[in-house]
Amino acid sequence: MRKFHWISAIAVLILVATALPVQAATFPASTETTDKQVGSLTPTVVSRLEKAVQELIGSKTAFQFDDVTDMGKTWIVEGELEDGTATLQTEYNKEKNRVDSTTIRYKIGSLGKAMNAPLKEKVLNSAKAFDSKRPLQFEAFWRVKSPYQSNKPSNYWVFWGTGEKASSLYVDVDQGNSITINADYALKQVDPVILNRAVNTFKRVSGQRITVQHASRYKDEKNGRSYWSFEDASEASEVKIGAVTGKVLAVSTSGMDWSDDADFKKSFANPKYTAAEALKLVKPKAQLLFNINLSSYKVKVQGNQYTFFRQQKGTDSIVAKVNKKGSFYEFSLHSSDGKML
Questions:
Q1: Angstrom distance (rounded) from CA 43 to CA 38
Q2: pTM of full prediction above 0.70
Q3: Phi/psi zone of residue 314: left (φ > 0), alpha (ψ -120 to 50 degrees), beta?
Q4: CA-CA distance, 61 to 312, in Å (whole number)?
Q5: Rounded Cα gap, residues 318 and 233, in angstroms
Q6: Dist CA 119 CA 115 (whole Å)
Q7: Cβ neighbours around 295 below 10 Å, total
Q8: Which of 223, 136, 207 is nearest to 172 (CA)?
Q9: CATH code of the region 186-252
């Protein structure tokens, strides 16, 4: 995840479509934005906006709406908390008559006032424990709710890191305040052994040396997942290595060669390989990447995805994906319940 910079409210809405799990506004390409007064909105719309904001900040906190920007299909309504601790932004969908998203952007100094003590302590402890050598520090935090978006979290707190190491910490309100963290690292800050393992993993899959450009570390406290992610300059190739175990968990290279969904369905209507052929091709890769011998494994094929598994309980499986040319470009390790390790 690259460094997030403070920008205008409209630019934020454009950015979140690809960078943040926030419901993005639909902006018609030919529509010019126009400013309106809050008073031009109907009382029903204003009431719905106020209710959405109050749900996140509490009914006792005073706030006001200042500006309305007409985006065509949506209104972007901005304002601020009257105590000066935060600005706010809501997106109202005119076609569906609903509040699509609400964001409260707090100053970091207001953490104690905005968040209850137990949750504040949980966040600060998680930030400190993430990396004992370089504890996370934050420059701002937001409270966000986008109930109609498909990706998760959609109801959360998010903290933004400072300095050369961009970071983000998410608190998923709908999942018992579970915390996930992602932080960027300069390559010089990564253990050379782990970094070299990532480089060698790329070479074992692609046959070529892929230069690692980006390094980040991810942690999901709820399910115990914690890994390093290494990507090339274009972020088309990635290696995931367990932060605790140091083992390769997944690798993908820029091997996708179909043009669209129709081309994909046509290209993989029939399996590229039989089970025996797939086993023969993937067996040496599985040994090199994951130190797993596939001799007694079975194969399940779905589209371009080949799953190598054993029916024995507690046995890890391997999922490999093939492109139109017949090259396996992606491998990942999964637990017996099908979840990626």
A1: 10
A2: yes
A3: left
A4: 57
A5: 27
A6: 7
A7: 8
A8: 223
A9: 3.10.450
Tell me the C-alpha distance between 216 and 1, whole Å. Answer: 7
User: How many residues in the chain?
Assistant: 341
List the domain boundaries for the chain: 1-185, 186-252, 261-334
Q: How far is CA 120 from CA 116, 125, 252, 304, 332, in A?
A: 6, 9, 37, 45, 35
Q: Please enumerate in sequence order all residues whose Cβ is within 8 A of that of 283, keeping only pairs 6 or more positions apart, or say none.
A: 293, 294, 295
Asked if 145 and 154 touch (Cβ cutoff 8 Å), the reply is yes
d(CA 33, CA 91): 14
Q: What is the 3-state secondary structure (H, E, C) of the chain?
A: CCCCCCCCHHHHHHHHHHHCCCCCCCCCCCCCCEEECHHHCCHHHHHHHHHHHHHHHCCCCCEEEEEEEECCCEEEEEEEECCCCEEEEEEEECCCCEEEEEEEEEEHHHHHHHCCHHHHHHHHHHHHHHCCCCCCCEEEEEEEECCCCCCCCCEEEEEEECCCCCEEEEEEHHHCCEEEEEEEECHHHCCHHHHHHHHHHHHHHHCCCCCCCEEEEEEECCCCEEEEEEECCCCCCEEEEECCCCCEEEEECCCCCCCCHHHHHHHCCCCCCCHHHHHHHHHHHHHHHHCCCCCCCEEEEECCEEEEECCCCCCCEEEEEECCCCCEEEEEEECCCCCEC
Q: Is the predicted pLDDT of residue 208 greater than 90, yes or no? A: no
268-327 pLDDT, tens digit per residue, is 999 999 999 999 999 999 999 999 999 999 999 999 999 999 988 778 999 999 999 999
The structure tokens listed for 286 are 């599985």
Residue 149 CA to residue 17 CA, distance in Å, equals 11
**What pLDDT shows up at residue 36?**
61
- The token duo for 183 is 């932080």
User: What is the sign of the dihedral through the CA atoms of 22, 28, 33 and 37?
Assistant: negative
Maximum Cα–Cα distance across the chain: 71
Instruction: Give the residue-averaged pLDDT of 34-43.
Output: 75
